């Protein structure tokens, strides 16, 4: 019964309901395949973070996107 | 001085201000009763997560609610 | 079905098994009392952190304890 | 570039190096398949938590295992 | 390549884009100065939490602000 | 009063007590400089994670180090 939490940047209008369903399923299956433990209680929590609030190498992703554009 | 963080699904319009006050008090008291440590600096952080972003057993809570309904 | 996680300093030999059992029960009950939701799947995770790795006001708890002693 | 963190109970001597390698790969691939984003910087962090420090439904996993045994 | 996450109360309209840029830079530099490790992949995630959802000493920050006012 | 948490790989015998003291101070000061808020209650928590349990791009840091060596 793991807790799997995902933090990702919120981009292009955000992850769709379908993407979040697929991701939840796949992450849970991945765990199940590796550990062969019961996952009926496995929890997946997905958090989307504004690109203003997520920085890589000291630069917000908002700025990284601008530089690249 | 613990940090207690709560992640819960956002349901039925979300937790009310009063529920969050009560929860903060009770969690802090629980810690105090067990460890008898100072809790004047104890932190409680409550995060409500969309039922689309919270999955149990690989199924989002949004879908679990639908199946049950 | 909340996830409640507790981060606390590891002191005096650490929390005992009994304290961790009591804390888990009380935190879960607190949530149940406030929200009246099912808690049979509620998760409590307790993490004890070395006082060298936990700082308050920019000072590690190890040093705070020394100054007070 | 997501951060995927896994908290799981430490059981039967703990996850092996190989299991952790496989899990890291599979979780990263799952994300990649769903979002089609670059994952060369995706981070996976696996934390194993003592069964004394992990409770479900207010009962530590250590105790749950005993009751079942 | 550390992950640095900041949880802070959302106050006075929230942190500005500029403050979040500055904070990301400074936190990353701090890490770099102390450990002298590569930080081009260092991640900073900033989360602002409603003062209703953040409690200190069992009292929500919303209430603490009121009492002081 | 922020909570700043740092997750980093445990390498070369781990961060020293002095490094953790410095990091705690610098991170707290960084926050103070940007937001000009009281930081006497700011919390810094540093977690060092085994290179077997920390993966980048789907590869554990243990393996990344080997490939480079």
Description:
Chains A, B, C, D, E, F: This is Tautomerase. Chains A, B, C, D, E, F: InterPro entries: 4-OT, 4-OT-like_dom, Tautomerase/MIF_sf. Chains A, B, C, D, E, F: Its EC number is 5.3.2.-. The structure is a homohexamer of 69-residue chains. By secondary structure, chain A is of the alpha+beta class. Chain A has a single domain, classed as Macrophage Migration Inhibitory Factor (2-Layer Sandwich). Chain A is built from two helices and four strands; from the N terminus they run βαβββα. In chain A, the strands form two sheets. In chain A, strands 1-2 form a two-stranded parallel sheet. In chain A, strand 1, helix 1 and strand 2 form a beta-alpha-beta unit. Chain A starts with a strand and ends with a helix. The model of chain A has no long low-confidence stretch (mean pLDDT 95). Chains in contact: A-B, A-C, A-D, A-E, B-C, B-E, B-F, C-D, C-F, D-E, D-F, E-F. Strand 2 of chain B pairs antiparallel with strand 3 of chain E.
CATH homology superfamily name of chain A: Macrophage Migration Inhibitory Factor
Q: What gap, in angstroms, lies between the N and C termini of chain A? A: 42 Å
Largest sheet of chain A: 2 strands, parallel
- State the largest interface: A-D, 23 and 23 residues
Shape of chain A: elongated
Q: What number is the mean pLDDT of chain A?
A: 95
Strand order of the largest sheet of chain A: 1-2
The H-and-E topology of chain A, N to C, reads as EHEEEH
Give me the CATH architecture of chain A, please: 2-Layer Sandwich
Give me the number of helical elements of chain A: 2
**Based on the structure, what is the oligomeric state of the protein chains?**
homohexamer
